[in-house]
Amino acid sequence: MIEIIAIDTPTLGDRSYLVGDGEVAFVVDPQRDIDRVLDLARARGLRITDVFETHIHNDYVTGGLALARATGAAYHVNAADPVSFERAPVGDGDVVEVGPSLRVRALATPGHTFTHLSYVLEAPDRVPAVFTGGSLLYGSTGRPDLLGPDHTGELVKRQYASAHRLAEVLPDDAEIYPTHGFGSFCSATQSAADRSTIGREKRVNPVLSQDEQAYVDELLAGLDAYPAYYAHMGPANSAGPDAPDLTAPAKAEPGELRSRIEAGEWVVDLRSRTAFAAGHLVGSLNFGIDGSFATYLGWLIPWGTPLSLLGETPEQVAEAQRELLRIGVDRVETAATGTPAEWSGGASLGTFPRARFEELALVRHHRPVTVLDVRRDLEWARSHIDGALHVPLHELLGRVGEVPAGEVWVHCQAGYRASIAASVLAAAGRRVVAVDDEFDRAARAGLPMAVG
Prior knowledge:
6-stranded mixed sheet
């Protein structure tokens, strides 16, 4: 029986796939930490013979080459992609036989990138399945602007044509298995769907239910910023990433942590925002492992800055290290586990208050405070607190000087980004309150709202 196993990476919003017939298997778009794939294949008694890349990824470092080397599998990458490693080149219409029962056909579906491929699984006694990468997603498509503004206009039209090609050559009951679209910034919009078919997408997906100009206009109007680390992913993937090294970082003592902070290095606290606000090593930054840790750390950190991690347990540090490897942060200088009191070596800890929007509304009646909104541009345009200062989180490091002196109440949509911003401001010596609340509650709290 043919089994399609999704391997989720929810923190990056991506899925890889292991497809087997009980004996042999192929993999589509594997993440950097290939041990997950190898463990699944081993548990099911599968021999991986082929690895397929739908495109040169922009949001993570691939594990495809390392997986192919570890298993002896053929590594299928578009023949048109300028890569620096040996691969089994594949192009539009090519068919790869994976064992006696799995037949994989490549279809050119440019749009997310110029050389994007989708792969159609054709097997006896089952409906076709198509692995669409960053082409046709659940209720959306992959965004067409990651290669730069000079190419966006052409790629968005190619994305439209590619989606329609899939809808024309595949039956309505064909199953769709995208790589992006589960929270990834590679997706143009987000969908709550967890599975779909070509027939369903014809009914609900704008790319298949709207005319080309309406789709293009709506998609382009909805594009917002994407993580800065994306600029490093394409070159890394074209060069052929090695297998990751998950060796634990060296242990850091309190004096070393203080020296690293004073030298301008990043010391990142992985604990929850609640724990960080209650007490933290002065100068450390809070990127909680309980949220989109790698996305926002990779977005904000100046690339190449030495990094140390602080966690409650070794498991927390190991999880963070795995997340970082997926986006090409291969080296963590040091780490420490335990409590802030242990990390500080007895020095005073930093703290800042947390609050709700109701408390902000009350405070504004009594004294002037700066309200700092660190959401992205489209979120701000839809609705924001009247009189707030808007500095998107990914711009804050370079714009701290624009935040007025005095008491700053910082908020985002749900609290995670606000805590990151609060830690940045606290490290800069600012007096900050982190609003740990859902933004939808702001208006109900009596705060005046504005749009645009």
